[in-house]
Amino acid sequence: MANCKLHRKKRPIFICIVEGNENKTEINYIECLNRDIRGISIKIHQDEHTDPQGMYKTAKTLILRNGLSGEDRIFILIDDDSSQNKIQIVRDMPKKISLITFVISSPCFENWLVSYFNNPKVGITSSQAIIDLSKFIKGYKKSGHYYDKLPSDHYKAIERYEKSYIGECKNGLIRISDFIRIILSKKE
Question: What is the value of pTM for the model shown?
Answer without folding.
Answer: 0.87
